[in-house]
Amino acid sequence: MPGILDLLFPVACPLCQRLDKGQEVKKQGACNDCYKEYIYPINQANVLTPDFIPSVSQVVCCSGYTGKMRDAMQRFKFNGETYIGKEFGKIAYSVLKKTNCLENTDVVTTVPISDSRFKERGYNQSYLIAKELCALSGCRYEELLIRNIQGEAQSHLLLKDREKAAGERFAPVADIDIQGKSILLIDDILTSGSTLDQCGKILKDAGALYITALCITSGRKEFLS
Description:
Elements: H1 4-8, H2 22-28, H3 32-38, E1 47-48, E2 58-64, H4 67-78, H5 83-96, E3 107-110, H6 115-121, H7 125-137, E4 145-147, H8 159-169, E5 170-172, E6 182-190, H9 194-205, E7 210-218, H10 221-224
Parallel strand pairs: 2-7, 3-6, 6-7
Antiparallel strand pairs: 1-2, 4-5
Helix pairs in contact: 2-5, 5-7, 8-9
């Protein structure tokens, strides 16, 4: 039975925005109907050893970038609906706990955004996802990467330009210490994979042993098949 706080402050499903499915949203980040429609069953198409991100050992995708998931991600990323980050964190946890990723993770980190983008937006959307995931899993979060420049949105660039731009944007934090560690690297949307690949290369060069990349959603055909 829902408590008084649930009645006074109902939690909306981030996808369909219904307010009458609060208990389902609290449990898994989305109402049952949306979860069944949009979140991949484990081992269907969402855990890959990607040749398009060679620096990463495996990538886990929670959902296709389509329909209500696409709308929710855009509201989260561009319209300031930061509460969605917590629900996406729950979705990520619900997917990852069906694998051995979390128990084998030493450090969770995220794709960073630049200072200028943070000032503009007020938050790093991937960090909000990671924060909830770590709260649920008990995994340790650490900033391992910095972003020198923001650059254009990936969707506006050709593939070769994405790869070049990604190579110029990222650097490791000072005194990074991840020798022999297994890293869970989180990003919100996977487009070409060049951003995750560049971040993965930096982490590998810094001594990371194993890198799992997690994205909430992707439009790549590999995850839609």
